[in-house]
Amino acid sequence: MNKLSIWRGTAADITFPALEGTVDADVAVVGGGITGLTLAMLLSEAGKSVALLEARRIGLGSTGNSTGNLYEVLSEGLYTVGEKWGRSVMGAVAESRRHAVDLIEGTAARLDADCAFRRCTLHRYATTAAQTEAIEKEYRAATELGLPARLVDQLPIAVASARTLALDNQAQFHPLAYLRALARRIASAQCRLYEHSAVVGIDEDTRTVHTARGAVRAGEIVLATHTPKGLFLVQAEMVPRREYGIGVRLARGPGPDGIFWGVGEYRHSLRSLRVNDTDYLIVVGEEHPTGQHDAVTPTGRLEAFARRYFDVAAVEYRWSAQNYRAADGLPYIGRSHTSDLYIATGFATDGLTYGTLGASIITDQILGRANRWAEIYRANRLAPVKGARGVLEESLSVAKALLQDYAARPHAELASIAPGTGAVVRIDGERLAAFRDATGALAVLSPVCTHLKCIVHWNAAEQSWDCPCHGSRFDVTGEVIEGPALSPLPRKPVTE
Prior knowledge:
alpha+beta, single chain, 10 helices, 9-stranded mixed sheet
């Protein structure tokens, strides 16, 4: 079994060099996911020179660990936007997301690769009678906006369900095949792409983005990193969460036709994929706050769900992804509150579509063009009433993590750490994050997150150190995997 996503396991590879030395560009884009690559494409096609910096590999962050589903509604329900913001904003959200899906479809048609783009039906289903109210609210919102929605009482697959909303003309694709084909197409002297070029600092005064071995001087800087790197006010308004996925090879195919998405506690999302004459079922769900729950159990529940309803030959892929949910239900896209940098964040689990939309909006802003959706999503908006519940949730989550870690959380003994595992330990009165590899060798780090000083937690499923406060994640050597942190966890010399 591969501990990577099905997209990573089935997409053609492509590599780009690391940044060496100093380069100049009209726009520096930080982040090589769907937001950053789409932005680089749109800006370079408009005549701007672009330098894109990806910390690891193109597309291997949130884009390469997604569902591959595209839709104009929302994971939390389009009706929730209507309840908070009113019908006109709800309609604009659906319209803007439809524009993004159309942009992906048009781009995929121009790429020299099979991105597996197809139009399909989205099925949002209740698993119990108590959840049917949410389905009916979403149906009313969709029909009010003229979307091709209908209510049905039974799913076309053998999964236990109650009331179901069927929405036609949504879409699916292979997100990593799309992104790598896009990168191959746009890479040029006009649009330079760099991998293994993690940003370690940003000097706004000189408009310079620094990596370990180079720098980009640019007129504009865009943080297309899912959550902005460094310190930003919006980080206090977003709850970081992780979601899990498995890729199951079916004994008999094909898998279910379309997108199937349950509401309720676990919110399982189902779709099929056919690659190299092999039929797969993709199951995603089991969301929980980053760093605050056991990460091993969710994938077990996903596998049990798949085996309950489908003829599973083998589970071949396991992965997870992180998302950040905006407090008031809308992403933050545009110039940030406290700086002149552009950001695009708060996509929740709707990032493929919102990332594409964010790139479109920021492109217009950089080029000085009007964009009819920019005001709705502007990153420097203040909506204290609409976002109060989300801000409270994030504040309580951070406070709980700080209280547990600095006052009450017990610590393991160093000798109790088995090979392949990690734990926060206390040695001579000092708190340390210790990992033991397969040979028995220890890697010992400071457990204090370099973003805002919370204590990291061990993630056994992914062998990483995860911060429960704002979602920064570090590998066993302390290097930043994702999140707002710019600096690695310092190493600590320890003799066992």
